[in-house]
Write a structure and sequence with these properties.
Blueprint lengths: L1 H21 L5 H13 L1 H19 L3 H60 L4 H35 L1
The chain binds zinc ion (ZN).
The site of zinc ion has 7 residues, from helix 1 and helix 3.
Length: 163
Amino acid sequence: MDKDKHNDNNHQKIRASLALAAVSALEPAAQSQVEAHLESCEPCRKEFSALRGLASELRVLPPPVLAFGLAQRTSARVRAELAARSERRRHNLVLLMVTVFAWIDTLIILAIARMFGNDIARLLHVSDSQLTFGFVVYWLVAVAATVALTGHVGRVHRQRRLV
Ligand SMILES: [Zn+2]
């Protein structure tokens, strides 16, 4: 009876370390204890050989370090994507500011033209209509410059993203 009980206790203990024994991860003393128990315990022997089979299948799988490398690469890609997204936001903000400044500039020029148009026309020895024409040309150039600048910024931005 006592021996059975001891064996049962031993069985429970061995059972818990069978997985480690199957991958030879136990201390040599514990390993040989498990092997000794397997001689006399069929359930443990079956479990052990099943675990052994599983362990050898796992060894065929790529080592965890590869999976870890994949995780690193994936997280690097996610970080790059997030950085690109925040750069796009910054880029859009720059475009917005350029556009706003161009419009403020245009409005200031138009206000000046309205207030001092006659004086400026006299100063430059041009007629009012010539001055108005000049302002329209200036405005068109300003718009064209804004479009060109934002296009250039966009190109630079795209080129940097390709690098
Ligand atoms: Zn057992």
